[in-house]
Amino acid sequence: MNKLSGIIFSPEGLTEGSVYYDGGRITAVTHHPTDTGLFIAPGFIDLHVHGGGGADFLDGTLQAWDTAAEMHASHGTAVLLPTTLTCPDSDLFAAFDIFRAAKKSSAYANVFYGLHLEGPYFSAAQAGAQDPKYLLKPTPEHYEKVLAAGKGCIARMSVAPELEGALALGRRLKEEGICASVGHTDAIYEDVLAAVENGYTHLTHFYSGMSALTRRHGYRFPGVIESGYMIDSLTVEVIADGKHLPLSMLNHVFRAKTPAKVALVTDAMRGAGQTEGKTILGSLENGQECYIEDGVAKMPGGEAFAGSIATTDRLVRTAVAAGAELTDAVKMMSETPARIAGMKRKGVIAPGCDADFTVFTEGVSVCETVSGGKTVYKK
Fold first, then answer.
1. What are the two backbone dihedrals, phi and then psi, of residue 89, each rounded to the nearest 5 degrees?
2. Domain locations in the chain?
3. Residue burial 263-297, b: 16+ Cβ < 10 Å; e: rest
4. Where does 44-344 sit in CATH, by number?
5. What are 219-278's pLDDT values in tens digits?
C-alpha cells in the first residue's frame, strides 16, 4: 500500500489528508491535518503534445518516446496523448507500432494513453506549421486504412470539418470511441454545427489554425472561433503558455467557456525543455526546421509559431497568472481533459480511480509524478 499526504485536490475542493493507492488504483482518501507542505493534484493530462527533451513522437524509436515522456513527467505530466503531425503514412503507421511497443515495455507505459492524430485532413488555408505536401482529403479509402492500422491506438483525431468526407469520418470516429476534434480549419459556423451533429465535440488549440468572423459580399459569417462560444456543447483546448494567447484572452476563454469545458494543452514539440536555438518540428527525417526564441518555437522568418515549448506545470502557473483559481487551473489540467478524451477513471482523486498524481509545492513546483500507481518522476 502506498500513501501520499498533503493538501488534496478532491472533487469537493481542497482538503488536507492522505491518499492511499495500490495496484494502480486509489483505494482510500482520508481527511486529517498534515504539515507536509505538499499539494496532491490529480495527475496532469496533456491531450496535445508532440515531443520534448529533444525528441519527437514521430522520430520512429521507442527511445524518443521515453525521452519525451521523461522530460514531461519531470514537469508533472502523468498522462499524455502522443501527437502526430501531417506526415507520410509510413511515419504515421510506425507511430502505431511504437505505441504498442511502449505499452508493453516502456517505463512510461502508463503515461501513454493513446495517440492524437493531428492531420492529415486539414485545410490548406489553415495549415500553419503542418507540412502542406502531406495534406489529404478524408476519403474512406484512406481513413479506413488508418483506423485499421491504428486499431486500439488512437484516442483522438483532429480534422477540418468543411472538407468533403469529413462528416462521414466524424461518424466513424464516434463509432470507434475516438474523440473527434475540429482543427486547422477554415470552416464557418454552419460547417461546425454540422460537424457537431456528426460526432465532433472539441476544438483543437482554440484560436490557432482556425477561422474567425469573415465578410463576404457584405455579409458576415461567424468562423470556428465564434462557433466555440456559440455552440455551448463544444469543449476547447488552449495553449496556455502565455505566448499563443495573451493572459487577457486566456482569462476571457476561462470565463466564457468555464473550466469545465476548457483543457490546457502544451502542444509542445521536441524543443520543450530547450531555451533557445534551432530545432525541428516533426520527425528528424521529414520534419520542418524552426527555431526557439522568447519562450516559443517559431517558423523560419518568425511570422508564425511552430508550436510551444511549454510544460504542464507552466500551463497551470500561466492559467493562475491569467486570473484562474488554482483549483480551476488544476481542473483544466486534469478533470476536464480526462472527460474530453473519455478517460473514465482519470482526472479525479477518489477511490476506484487510477492512481495518477502530480505532487507539487507552492508555485506549482513539481516534486513527484505518479502514473498508474508508478512513480515516473521524483525530485
1. -55, -35
2. 44-344
3. bbbbbbbbbbbbeeeebbbbbeebbeebbbeeebb
4. 3.20.20.140
5. 999 999 999 999 999 999 999 999 999 999 999 999 999 999 999 999 999 999 887 888
